[in-house]
């Protein structure tokens, strides 16, 4: 019973610290945020903060790790290869992906803010590339061919997709998640499969 109370108190403290940092990012540049600012906003003392985190960067890292774990859980296990993508069909994983960003919009809006986006975007890009590789069994499925995809083409495809997705998510969240997740899933999958020129010329 005592252990359960301790776990609940610890979880609440973690959330207070993270919420405080996210609130502060909306108010001032990340570089100007101090541990004192965080502890004051979270209404805890500094010793409590350092019991769980090394510094503000450690808080961001833990926020990122938890967000990526939740993203992975929300997406679930892949059911088919992207080689067989049909943008006209509803794709639950892509809808779930946009749902994930919408449900955690405040977090991502803060983390993609200009004051700390270089670090976060770099981590997010790396994670998305890793996720794409994992879901495609470490091979590119962007080229409909039975031949092996050259490593440089594979890397370019993964990098392009990750950057396009991050840019799309940033714009979408700032547009208050309009259009909805299902429409965004369709639009991104259409771009994903047909490319820039193909999408603009599509009737």
Concise synopsis of the structure shown:
The protein has two domains: 53 residues, Homeodomain-like (Arc Repressor Mutant, subunit A); 146 residues, Tetracycline Repressor, domain 2 (Orthogonal Bundle), CATH 1.10.357. It is 69% helix and 0% strand.
Break the fold down into its secondary structure elements and pairings.
Elements: H1 2-25, H2 35-42, H3 46-52, H4 56-75, H5 92-103, H6 105-111, H7 117-135, H8 151-174, H9 181-200
Rg over CA atoms: 20 Å
Distance between the termini: 63 Å
Count of strand segments? 0
Order of helices and strands: HHHHHHHHH
Summed up, the domain count is: 2
DNA-binding region: 34-53
InterPro entries: Homeodomain-like_sf (IPR009057), HTH-type_Tx_Regulator (IPR050624), HTH_TetR (IPR001647), TetR_C_Firmicutes (IPR039532)
Domain HTH tetR-type: 11-71
Organism: Clostridium saccharoperbutylacetonicum N1-4(HMT)
């Amino acid at each position: 019973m005592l252990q359960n109370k301790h776990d609940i108190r610890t979880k609440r403290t973690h959330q207070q610290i993270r919420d405080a940092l996210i609130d502060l990012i909306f108010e001032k540049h990340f570089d100007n945020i101090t541990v004192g600012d965080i502890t004051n906003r979270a209404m805890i003392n500094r010793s409590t903060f350092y019991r769980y985190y090394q510094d503000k960067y450690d808080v961001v890292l833990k926020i990122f790790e938890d967000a990526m774990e939740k993203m992975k859980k929300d997406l679930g296990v892949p059911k088919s290869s992207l080689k067989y993508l049909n943008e006209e069909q509803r794709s639950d994983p892509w809808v779930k992906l946009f749902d994930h960003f919408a449900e955690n919009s405040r977090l991502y809006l803060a983390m993609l803010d200009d004051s700390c986006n270089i670090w976060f975007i770099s981590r997010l890009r790396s994670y998305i590339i890793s996720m794409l590789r994992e879901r495609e069994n470490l091979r590119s499925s962007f080229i409909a061919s039975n031949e092996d995809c050259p490593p440089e083409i594979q890397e370019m495809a993964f990098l392009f997709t990750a950057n396009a997705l991050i840019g799309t998510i940033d714009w979408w969240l700032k547009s208050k998640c309009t259009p909805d997740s299902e429409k965004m899933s369709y639009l991104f999958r259409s771009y994903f499969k047909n490319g820039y020129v193909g999408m603009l010329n599509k009737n």
